[in-house]
Each structure stands twice: as structure tokens, then as C-alpha cells.
Amino acid sequence: MLKRQNPSTPEHRRDLAADGGALSMSHNDSRSFFSLSQLVLSAGRIKPSPALKHSKITYFEVEIVDVQSKKQICIVDKVPPASTLLDVKHKFHKACPQWYPSRVGLQLEHNGPFLKDSVSIQSLAVSSIVTLYFTDLGQQFFLTEYTGPLLIYLLFYVRLSTIYDQVESRKSFRHPVVHLACFCHCLHYIRHLLETLFVHKFSEGHTPLKNMIKGCAFYWGFTSWIAYYINHPRYTPPSFGHKQVSYAALAFLMCEAGNHFINVALAHQTNSGNRTCFPSPTYNPFTWLFLLVSCPNYTYEAGSWISFTVMTQTLPAGIFAFLMVIQMSLWAQKKHKVYLKRFYPEVRRKAAMIPIIF
């Protein structure tokens, strides 16, 4: 028979304590698991860690096409969408250093308006390649500046009824110097226009709008003043008559010819890529002035207007010639300093514009 264990014995008490401890631990574990479950449920669904976003930037290619020949000049690649047209002009200048941003005009269409520098490339793009038409504003600037005086002088020469009294115009006799002055004045600006189109290769940014307005106001204003006096019915011929007119006209034509040949010589050196040597005189006698001055084109330009003043003997022409001599001397001095740095042995004994004097 089995012997009943006495509950009061020490062994029985140890067993009860062990069972009670096990039950207590099991109860505590279940409470901890329940609390953890409630915490997880209250926190909501566990969100996955956000994936790294790879930003993809779309770059544009800007094709620059000549507006006249329709030929491609260059392609500006890797242009960010946030870039403006001014940024494109700067990159275009790096690819083609002869085109300064201030003289670059870009159009979206062949005959469309010029785009502003603040326009973004993204607003112009239809695809990844943007085609823009290029216009040289430098050439356009000088064409505008020189065409105005040519036309203005002719308006005064025909003596419009809105400018002069018609009765007085019919009665007065035109001195030959009036016709000669018109010929010389027109010849001067026609030469400038032809050289702008076929000779000059502009290399500096002279073409902001404010410079264009100042240049046109200066040349157009003085042309109107000079032409009004010379073509006036009461104009009086020079004091020394035919000799004064003839010698001054001859000097004017010689200065015009010299100016042209000097510009051709400078353009030839630029086009040939020979910029390591100072321009040297050729067999043409008009280029021999290179032996005495570093800027003979300014010397001839100043001589033309001084000769024109002597030929017409008018105050407006004299004031214009005086201002032109000052302006030419400033430009010559500035260019002479550049020549001294680049070609010191060849230029150090030369004057800037006037032989021996300046």
C-alpha cells in the first residue's frame, strides 16, 4: 500500500514552493508578453525603412545655328534645366571666344524676336535638343550706327521743305563745296559699312543697348547739326576759296584710303592667326605709317575729320572733329599700352597716334 505523504513534512513544503514559483513565473511571462503585444498594436503597423531616392537630372543640348547661312556653329551640351539663356551665352563664349555674351543675339525662330537673358532653357525645350538661331549684335550695332548718318545727311542735302524755306532754297546758288562735302561724307560712312560687313572681325563686347543708344545719339546728332549748316541756303563757302577746298578734299581722300588699307592689313593678320608679331608695313605706301605709330587707323580717322572741317569751314564740323580726336587718342593710348606688353621691342620707339608727339 502506498504511504500518504504528510503535508506538514519539510519535503512536501519544498515541492509546494517549487510548484508555486513555477506558476508565478509562468504568470509573469504571460503578463509581459501581453504587455508587449499591446505596445506593438498601439504603435501601429511597422513601416519599412525609406529607400534611397536616386535623383535623375535631365540635361539639354543647345544647338547654335547661324541665322543667315543656317549652318551649325556649335553645340552646347550638358545644360541643366535651371540654366538661363545668359548661362548658355557664357558657355557659347567658351566654345567660341570671339563671340562675347553681350554681342550674342539668340532667337527661337528664324524671324522671331531676340530672347531675354533671363529666360530658362527648360521653358524653351520641347525635346532634349534646343535649337537657337544666332545673330551677331556687334555687327548689327555698327551697321545701325553708320547707316543713320548716311541717310540723315542726304535728307538735309535734298533740302526738305520741313527743314528749309523752299523759296529761299530755290533762289540760293549751291557752292560746289556743298556737293563735294556730301560726296565725302557719304563716302566715309559707306566705307565704314562695307568694312563692317566684309573686313572687320569684332573681338570685344561693345554692344550693350546703352552703348548703342549713346553711339547712335552721338553720330546721328552731330550729323544733323553738320548737315544743317553745310546745306543751308545761306551757307558761305570757305575763306580761301578753291585752293582750300581742293587741298582739304585731297587730304580727306588720302586719309580715307589710308584708313581702309590699314584696316585690311589688321584684318589680314587676324584672319591668318599671326598674332605673335606686331603688324608690319607692306609695299603699300599707306601702311608705312606703321613705322611711326602703333595705331595708324586712328591717325587716318582723325585726319579725315580735320580735313573735312577745313574743307567746309563750319563750326559743327570743327567741334565734331575735336571730339573725335580726343576719342581716338584715348583709344590709341589704351591699345598702345596693350601693344607695349605684347610687342615691347617693336613698339617701344613708336608713338600711339601722332608721330613723335603722342
Task: Tell me about this structure.
With 358 residues, the protein is α+β, with helices and mostly antiparallel strands. 56% of the residues lie in helices and 8% in strands. It is built from eleven helices and four strands. The protein has a four-stranded mixed β-sheet with strand order 2-1-4-3. A hairpin with a 5-residue loop joins strand 1 and strand 2. Helix 7 packs antiparallel against helix 10, helix 8 runs antiparallel to helix 9 and helix 9 packs antiparallel against helix 10. It is flat and about 75 Å long. The relative contact order is 0.07.
Q: pLDDT under 50 segments (min length 5)?
A: 1-5, 16-27, 49-55
Beta strand %: 5-15%
Structural class: alpha+beta
- The value of Rg in angstroms is 43 Å
User: What spatial form do the alpha-carbon principal axes imply?
Assistant: flat
Percent helix range: 55-70%
Largest sheet: 4 strands, mixed
Mean of the pLDDT scores? 80
Order of helices and strands: HEEHEHEHHHHHHHH
Task: Provide key terms for this protein.
alpha+beta, 358 residues, 4 strands, flat, 4-stranded mixed β-sheet, 8% strand, 56% helix
Note the topology.
Elements: H1 10-43, E1 60-66, E2 72-79, H2 85-95, E3 104-107, H3 121-124, E4 129-136, H4 137-157, H5 166-171, H6 176-198, H7 209-230, H8 241-272, H9 296-312, H10 315-342, H11 344-347
Parallel strand pairs: 1-4
Antiparallel strand pairs: 1-2, 3-4
Q: Quick gist of this model?
A:
The protein is an alpha+beta fold. Helices cover 56% and strands 8% of the residues.
